[in-house]
Model the fold of this input.
Amino acid sequence: MVAPTIDKEVMQSIAADFCGDLIEPGDKSYDDAREIYNAMIDKHPHLIARCANVADVIAAVNFARDNGLDLAVHGGGHNGAGLAMVDDGVVIDLSPLKGIRVDQAAQTVRVQGGCTWGEVDHATHAFGLAVPSGIISTTGVGGLTLGGGHGYLSRKYGLTIDNLIEPDVVLADGRLVTANASQHEDLFWAIRGGGGNFGVVTSFLFQAHPVHTVYGGPIIWPISQAEELMKWYRDFIADAPEDIYAWFGFHRVPTGSPLPEALHGHHGCVMTWCYTGPMDKAEEVFAPIRQLGDPVLDMAGPMPYPALQRMFDQLYYPPGLQWYWKADFVKELSDEAIDIHTEHGSSLPTELSTMHLYPINGAVHDVAASETAFSFRDVTWSRVIVGVDKDAANATHLKQWARDYWAALHPLSAGGGYVNFMMEEGQDRIEATYRDNYARLVQVKAKYDPDNLFHVNQNIKHRT
Ligand SMILES: Cc1cc2nc3c(=O)[nH]c(=O)nc-3n(C[C@H](O)[C@H](O)[C@H](O)COP(=O)(O)OP(=O)(O)OC[C@H]3O[C@@H](n4cnc5c(N)ncnc54)[C@H](O)[C@@H]3O)c2cc1C
Done:
């Protein structure tokens, strides 16, 4: 049995003022509580403060600050680099904060900091509404939103941050403030893309949109047709109508999955669709797409939006796998880049490893790069190369494959990568990602978190 590591008297100072659970090494729930989505990361905090309400969040921020302890914030725990956990410090775990309230008339939704996107989709779908988010429903609202947030609805309604009306934030000094277009405007600007650098967001108010049934899902082709399809996709998505979205990927059908057995292990390329235009036009829109190459599986069709959001949760990506991520933003997909893609994408090291190109054009381009901290709005895709497997013994192999693939393509990229798809890759990568917005982020950081209490993230640091 591992002993608690924070002095009993020091613990008393938070225990007296805390409603939720204070979980320490040696407690029965400790190992479950420190488990995060990426099993490659294994951190041992001194304390996990599982907050029942905003007062608990304030108490935990004050406790970490006053005792000089490192502090991490756990939203959904999905972050690839494992930034929801910290060794030898305090974790503010927001997972009990599950309140969601939809305002039907205003088409807005207020969401507490511990929600996942699946929970939000469930709540808004009952009213025929949705907020743009990511493509896996178990992802946390907190981390995804603060990094930017792109997914099936982004070509039509923008990034998640473009739909953020106001967050409530517990600052490093323990104050709770609301940031929006007319109060704490600098904080509101920085939080939209600047990650968890500025405080703990206890609640988010989002604009939602009328989205109910979509025509979506994957169409899979053999890997031998990847070059032809990638070229078609590049040209199509550049100026496709905003109500059609598709990400392009390389993948293998996992053995044992509910997909047809004949395809298990099959190496292919995929476009996963979300069409939100008039449903009676959908078959017509998809007819030419179905003429491309020789699809081996076509799962595209009408479905409730939350079903599309949940589609890959268990099929491909349950929690507890090994993940190694490499990201870039991409403006143009040259023939040379397509050659590199087909070479590396044809040699996926494991059945779950993949490469995705997520479009961030359309409505994402309607907001200027300086309007929010998220800088790379002038590109076409956010690209991620991820080595994924069940077996920890494959970790080195996964990392090498992802690094080699990334290194071959990086010189053809726009520079910088989506913060939510990065491991801990050093300060140069972070600055390259925020470009001209970095200097302003440093100023806002100095104002709201001068001692860098919130540093377990893609950290905004003073330039030396
Ligand atoms: C399988 C998979 C698919 C994904 N697909 C997409 C996608 O389609 N689109 C996309 O945009 N992203 C996607 N992501 C990336 C995702 O956005 C990041 O992993 C994100 O960090 C997850 O948020 P979280 O709250 O679950 O993370 P956590 O690990 O809990 O936190 C991540 C970071 O955010 C901070 N943070 C979290 N919540 C708060 C809060 N309330 N206040 C202050 N700081 C906070 C944490 O301190 C940490 O630094 C995907 C990730 C996975 C694993």
Q: What stands out?
A: The pocket of flavin-adenine dinucleotide is lined by residues 37, 72-80, 83-84, 94, 113, 134-136, 139-140, 142-144, 146-147, 149-151, 195-196, 200-201, 317, 420, 456-457 (CB under 6 Å). The chain has three domains: 21-93, 100-210+435-448, 213-421. Residues 395-409 form the longest helix (15 residues). The mean pLDDT is 96.
